[in-house]
Amino acid sequence: MRKIPPLNALKIFDIAARYKSFSSAASENHMTKGAISQQIKVLENWFEFELFNRTANGIELTDNGSNLMKTCNLAFSIIERQCEDLKRKSNYRNEIIIGCSSSLLSYWFLPKLYGFFSADKKFTLNYNSQASFQSIINGEVDFFISGEKISNYSFIDYELLYKDEIGLVCSVEYKKKIFNNDFEEITLLHSKSRYSAWNEWCCLSNIILNVSNEIIFDKLSLALDAAKLNLGVTIAPKFVVENDIDKGLLYAPFGFLNCSSGTYLYTRNNLSNDKKTIINEIISKVKG
């Protein structure tokens, strides 16, 4: 038997400590203020010290009470997160969790999935645009797409999806400034995720851009959206923008150049065969 105080009393203490009010805790738990006070007393008897200082103006946590509040916050957060995870896994046995940046999702991954879903494909796709490589290590995603090459984990398989080709892209209207050699009038659109892309492209193309106007965005997708709005030019991988180029939304006046970077797929190798089959179908679709 675990040597812990009653869980219901801890739950009530957690609420009372957060609100610093027995009345608010009573309201949230649909209990009387006296019943809340009684549960707090149960805890104080168990610990053999007071958790609150009672004053005419209300209640204040003691030092021991503050320490217990921190412990409860951590413990209940872990329990809540794990319970939600178990519930999700139970509800979505065929769920595929994808870790991929929002830029790759919106400009490449999702457009490529058009026509993929059908009645015989019974699974749920869950996209996590905030995922990192640590997410796949922790098992929070089933596969992860990234420009970073990491290969020293025995339980993670990886493959090169694309050897990157990068190019300067802009709107069809903005290309007039390029062809008129109005480079001083050009605005460079940077993305923090690929901030060195401009220097890399200039070295590969032997083109020097002496410009003073620059705009920096958190994500590549925002830089591309700005380019389509005639705000400037940015650097992007070919596979990310080729769909918009085909539609006439973007233009690559100098074409694309091979560079040293690549885009990799990381997959946990302990997945079920059903999941592996679905993931292989998804990757074949987006690469096609």
UniProtKB/TrEMBL annotation:
Superkingdom assignment: Bacteria
GO biological process: DNA-templated transcription
Keyword Transcription regulation among UniProt keywords: yes
Transmembrane segments: none
Domain HTH lysR-type: 5-62
PROSITE patterns: HTH_LYSR
Pfam families linked to this entry: HTH_1, LysR_substrate
Keyword Chaperone recorded: no
GO MF term set: DNA-binding transcription factor activity; sequence-specific DNA binding
Keywords of this entry: DNA-binding, Transcription, Transcription regulation
Family: Belongs to the LysR transcriptional regulatory family.
Protein name: LysR family glycine cleavage system transcriptional activator
